[in-house]
Structure formats: C-alpha cells, structure tokens
Design brief:
Order of helices and strands: EHHHEHHHEEHEHEHHE
Number of helices: 10
Radius of gyration: 20 Å
Structural class: alpha/beta
Helix content: 40-55%
Oligomer: single chain
Number of domains: 2
Number of strands: 7
Largest sheet: 5 strands, mixed
C-alpha cells in the first residue's frame, strides 16, 4: 500500500455490481424524497441532518471516488458481476465513513417509522452491503486491517445469522438470550431478536440475558442503548443481565448511567 502522510489506499474486493446498482438507486430515492420533506421539517430532523452531512462530506472530499465510481459504472454497462476497487482517500475518510453509516441507519429508522414516506426502508441485503462498504474504510485506515472482501463478509453474515438462530433463544414471553461476541457483525441480529420478542409477545419487560457474551464493542453498546430507548418509547422496559467479566466495560462506557442501575444486573458467567 503506497500510503502518504495524508492519504491512504483502501481496497474494496469483490464489489457486487448489481447490488451496488440497487443500493445506489435506493439511496437516491431516499435523498429525493428527503429533499421534498425537509422544507416542512425542523432543522434537526433526520432529512435535514442527512442533507447537511452529505453536503459537508461532498465539499470535504470533492473528487474523491470519482474515478472508482466511473469504474463501477463501466462494470455495470459491461454486465460484470463483481469488481475490485482501490480508493485513494484522506485519512479523515475513516471517521467520515462511520458518521455516514450512522446517519444512514437513522434514515432507515425514519423511513420505517414515517407514515408519510413513499420510499421503503432499505432491504436487508442492501443494508449489509452498505455497512460492509463503509466499514472497510475505518477497518483499513484506522485499524490497519487487510481488506475483507464482500464474498468473505457475506459468508460471515450467513454464519453469524445461523449462530444467532442457534444460540439466541426467546425464552418464555420476555427473555432473549444471546451468547458470543456482540459487535458490528452480530448487533443487527440481536436487535431483530429484541424487537421480535416485543412484537410477538407484547411483554411489558424484555429481559436480555447476556451472561454468555464474551465481547462487546462500541456498536454493541450503542445497540443496547438504542433498544432500551426504543422499548421505552413503546411503553416497555428492557432489563439486561451482564457477566461479571464485562463490569469494567459497563462502568467505563457509562451504560449503567444511561439505563439507570435498576435496569442492569451483573451476575456470574453463563456456561457456554
């Protein structure tokens, strides 16, 4: 990798051209509809925030990615199934990619909850592609990781999804059990389990048993806070049981402060 002090090369391997086309078309549809809605919404609304962020990133990274976008377009015209791309980007692209990923997740929630929206929430396969695409910038720039190709990422998703189905059990009417690592790769599956439990059972309390969790990253912490607030909005509560080994992380992250002590219990580790 021929990096400089200010710029680095990021490789995206096995980019699925057809998925990229659908993802681009869907994102353009969201932007068009947000452009219509934003005039009648508060400045801090999701449509206005997304518009401001995109405008800011466009100005900051003007011209970055133009060549690779042209490569993708040519690949689509040639009917190619996949393509390897190399971006030369400022190091600041890592933080920008995380910010954009978070904003697009919020846009999806807005589409899901907004009755006035005509554009549907992003389909799961396009969400997975988007998260892989953007996460590669922070992985390679900040963490110094080797590229993770789309086929490898997709296989991992399949394995994780099956593992979550095998290990995460809705017990009784209000308990969700999750074991293993809670991170970018698994957070979405756990979120779905929490919401599924709430929708199917309508319980006033959803107990999240994480005693078998071995690792939680910032994405996992964010998921717990988001799920807690979402359930609160629905008139329910979420109680979390964490293993003793994660006590330092819980204290440092401030998770207890957000959820209030009565919603978090630290107990012995569940046998795996």
């Amino acid at each position: 990798m021929n990096d400089t002090a200010d710029h680095v090369r990021v490789s995206l391997l096995g980019v699925p051209v057809e998925v990229w086309q659908r993802a681009s078309a869907h994102q353009e549809a969201i932007h068009r509809e947000f452009d219509i809605l934003k005039a009648n919404l508060d400045q801090d609304s999701v449509p206005n925030q997304l518009n401001d962020l995109v405008s800011s990133l466009t100005a900051r990274f003007a011209g970055v990615g133009d060549e690779t976008s042209a490569e993708l377009q040519r690949a689509a015209e040639e009917g190619r199934q996949e393509i390897d791309l190399v971006y030369t980007v400022p190091r600041a692209a890592a933080a920008a990619s995380r910010e954009l990923a978070s904003m697009l997740d919020r846009a999806d929630r807005f589409c899901r909850e907004g009755e006035e929206m005509l554009t549907l929430v992003t389909p799961p396969d396009l969400v997975a592609f988007r998260r892989w695409f953007l996460a590669e910038f922070s992985r390679q720039i900040e963490e110094g990781q080797d590229p993770l190709s789309w086929p490898e990422y997709e296989r991992t998703l399949i394995e994780v999804d099956q593992g979550v189905r095998d290990r995460s059990v809705v017990a009784g009417t209000d308990s969700v059990v999750f074991e293993g690592e809670l991170d970018l790769m698994t957070a979405g599956a756990l979120r779905d389990q929490i919401l599924l439990s709430r929708r199917e059972e309508g319980s006033a309390v959803v107990e999240l048993d994480l005693r078998g969790v071995t690792f939680i990253d910032s994405v996992g912490i964010s998921l717990l806070v988001t799920a807690y607030k979402r359930l609160q909005d629905d008139g329910a509560e979420m109680r979390i049981i964490l293993p003793e080994r994660l006590r330092p992380l819980v204290e440092i992250s401030g998770l207890v402060d957000v959820l209030a002590p009565r919603f978090v219990t630290v107990e012995g580790t569940r046998d795996i």
